[in-house]
Amino acid sequence: AVLALLVLPSDPRRMYVVDEAAAELVCDGPVCVAKTHQDRLTDLAGPGKEALRLLHSALGERAPVSVRENTAVLPEGTTPRWSAETVLLDFDDDIVAAAKGEELTRSLIAEGMVPDCTPVGWTSVGGDLYAQTIAASWVLGDFKPLPGTLSEKLRREVDAETRAVWRELKALAPAEQHRRINAARAAAHSCEGDAFDALNGGKSR
């Protein structure tokens, strides 16, 4: 089991830190997991490297350069903090948990493009998932829903909210596509602003 140790912070926004021994990383090239999950590295390494390759092809120098299991433990209700240089994943994340192969590659691309800003311990289906669906589809060139355990009703809702926006995005000039993608990534990685709204050109839906 992973043991969470509370480190008294000088800044209340600082995080809890996971026990260092449990969080020690095991890597296959640029893809790393916590030592406690090293049995999952084999299935993650191939899709992780492919996700990085595709992200670099789409984003160039702006692309993340590594995939790493997120071992930080934040207090409930805290807004996550993300890095544009690293795709951080949580094996309990719904779009990652049961995904394998190409589905896992799509999920990792989604996490790298527009990570979820839902506060820790909360659940939601909305803008972040919509933005992830569109951004991953933009990188891969085909529209598909992300893996996960959503009900059929919620899947239809996500499709209804995202498919038209993706088509509109792909119909734009390349420069405008990249402008919207960059704006969405900036909003998601800072957890300030609305990534889905950026992809939609600032339109209210």
Describe this structure in words.
This protein has helices at 20-23, 41-59, 94-97, 101-113, 127-140, 152-171, 174-190, 195-199; strands spanning 4-5, 17-18, 25-28, 31-34, 66-69, 86-89. With 205 residues, the protein is of the alpha/beta class. The strands form two sheets. Strands 3-4-5-6 form a four-stranded mixed sheet. A two-stranded antiparallel ribbon has the order 1-2. Strand 3 and strand 4 form a beta hairpin. Helix 4 (101-113) crosses helix 5 and helix 5 (127-140) crosses helix 6 (152-171). Mean pLDDT is 84; it is low at 1-17.
C-alpha-based Rg, rounded? 17 Å
Strand order of the largest sheet: 3-4-5-6
First-to-last CA distance: 44 Å
SS element count, helices: 8
| Major sheet characteristics | 4 strands, mixed
How much of the sequence is in beta strands? 5-15%
What is the string of helix and strand elements? EEHEEHEEHHHHHH
Into which percent range does the helicity of residues fall? Answer: 40-55%
Give the number of domains. 1
Q: Mean pLDDT, rounded to whole units?
A: 84
Shape, per Cα inertia axes: globular
Structural class call reads: alpha/beta
Number of strands: 6
Stretches with pLDDT under 50, minimum 5 residues: 1-17
Summarize the structure.
The protein has 205 residues and is an alpha/beta fold.
Secondary structure elements and pairings:
Blueprint (H helix, E strand, L loop, with lengths): L3 E2 L11 E2 L1 H4 L1 E4 L2 E4 L6 H19 L6 E4 L16 E4 L4 H4 L3 H13 L13 H14 L11 H20 L2 H17 L4 H5 L6
Parallel strand pairs: 4-5, 5-6
Antiparallel strand pairs: 1-2, 3-4
Helix pairs in contact: 2-4, 4-5, 5-6
